[in-house]
Amino acid sequence: MLQYSESDSDNYRCLLLSLPLDERISSLSGYIKAKLVTFLPLTIEELSEAHKFQDIISQNDVSKELTQEAVSGLFVDFKKVLDLQFYPFEEQIDTIAKLASLLAFEMEDIWQPKTPERIESMGGEPKCWPWVLPRGLPAKKIKQSVVFLLSCPRSGSTISRLILGAHPQLFSPPELHLLPFSSMGEREAQLRDNGFESMRWGPVEALMELHGWDWDQANQFYDKQVEVDLPVSEFYGHLVDSCGDRILVDKTPSYAYHPEWLARAEDVFENAKYIFLTRHPYGMINSFVKLRIKTVTNNMFGPVDSDSWRLAEKWWYTGNANIIEFFKKIPENKRSSIRYEDVVADTENVFSNICDFLNVNFSSDILNPYDNNSDVMLHGAGDPNIGKYKKIDSSLFDSWKKTPPPQQLSEETKALAEYFQYPLP
Ligand code: A3P
Predict the structure, then answer these.
(1) Cβ–ligand 1 contact at 252 (below 6 Å)
(2) How far is C-alpha 285 from the geometric centre of its chain's CA atoms?
């Protein structure tokens, strides 16, 4: 059996991929146990694969803190050794056997995928959404300026947000997830009922930054707005007022997944401007699968599919197509489009045009987003790997070439890629 060895960890992922599934699972079980015993006062023999991990922990009187540290350490190691992203909610996987099987399956799905069937027609595919649609119009529209950065996820939206946020006249917090909701109470209930509690973080982080509050103070304020069921438009009003002379930038990729979520921006704001960010379909699809976004979004934001590559393609197509439709109703002077590939290759040029579009002077601060954003803004909700980078890295734009999508793209996707002038190999 292939044994994990710390000294040959670089090769471990490649070796695993060469094994039949059952051998890969056995080896991964051994790897998980070997890692866990480095954190926990347990022996490999005590870590039974089939028993519930929580039962083993309580039978051996291991503290909650140590267990948490071990699981977080394990997930960090998955990223380092297996190049696999795991998410906090996956801590609920209850046995080592299940975790090893999941790892084995996910590795194959990403690096040795089977060719999925081609999507025949986007319109004919099933769809599902988590939230009830926003009801009624806000009592009055907000007059101050606001900017929406619209895109599919995995399109460079976080680095673009940080570039904008580095400008002294812009305030660009982590993902706000506000537009699809009528009121803060209704929003909170829906986040909870659908398992998206983490979508609270963006607004809380925005409050921390705007008011200089700590996490608890910002949470208390946020909870109060939930309790009084403040209309979301008034919560936006609070954010915009607290920005002072700065303009709020709301970058939340999920807005692109229902036409009515996008339309709500014009109901709430009188003077919104929109930046449409696109990325090559292969880049976005590849990144979506590699980051295992299907497990986070759980087939709940429009497109549904059991195959992660087809799902990623549906996300690329649907988000972009919805934004194009939305833009047809927006006057030309309120909308602008940029491409991720140009954002990273020609940042100064792209964003000096964006500064003109937003009527703010160009500031060279935006060229150093990692120096000109606070820790809260740098590490908030969004790309979980954003901490990996220290500068705008133009070499990443075509990193998908190493693992292009296995499927033949649908005719609709190809036509949209052509519309954006993205060449398909
Ligand atoms: P990959 O996963 O292909 O690397 P989003 O923020 O919309 O989720 O997009 C994530 C993508 O932005 C990632 O794609 C990542 O490489 C890219 N990205 C993040 N930080 C970057 C940086 N500093 N320079 C260039 N690209 C960056």
Answers:
(1) no
(2) 13
> Residue 7's pLDDT is what?
75
pLDDT per residue as tens digits for the range 126-178: 899 999 999 999 999 999 999 999 999 999 999 999 999 999 999 999 999 99
Q: Whose CA is nearest to atom 15 of ligand 1?
A: 156
Q: What is the pLDDT of residues 350-375, one digit of tens each?
A: 999 999 999 999 999 999 999 999 99
Contacting residues for 359 by C-beta, under 8 A, at least 6 apart = none
Q: How far is the CA of 88 from the centre of ligand 1 (A)?
A: 21
Report the alpha-carbon distance of residue 58 to residue 51 in Å, rounded: 12
Any atom of ligand 1 within 6 Å of the Cβ of 319: no
Taking the model in full, what pTM does it have?
0.95
Q: Residues 262, 266, 268, 269: is their CA dihedral positive or negative?
A: positive
Give backbone dihedrals phi and psi of 142, rounded to 5 degrees, phi first: -80, 130
Cα 41 to averaged position of ligand 1 atoms, centre (Å): 38
Give nearest CA residue, ligand 1 atom 3.
287
- Using only the alpha carbons of the chain, give its radius of gyration: 23
Contact indicator for 36, 74 with CB cutoff of 8 Å? yes
Burial of 2 (0-12, 13-18, 19+ CB in 10 A): middle
Burial category of 176 from C-beta neighbours within 10 Å (exposed 0-12, middle 13-18, buried 19 and up): buried
What's the CA gap between 340 and 159, in Å, rounded? 9
Instruction: Supply 382's token pair.
Output: 């969004």
At a CB cut-off of 8 Å and minimum separation 6, what does 186 contact?
Answer: 132, 229
Do the beta carbons of residue 24 and residue 107 sit within 8 Å? yes
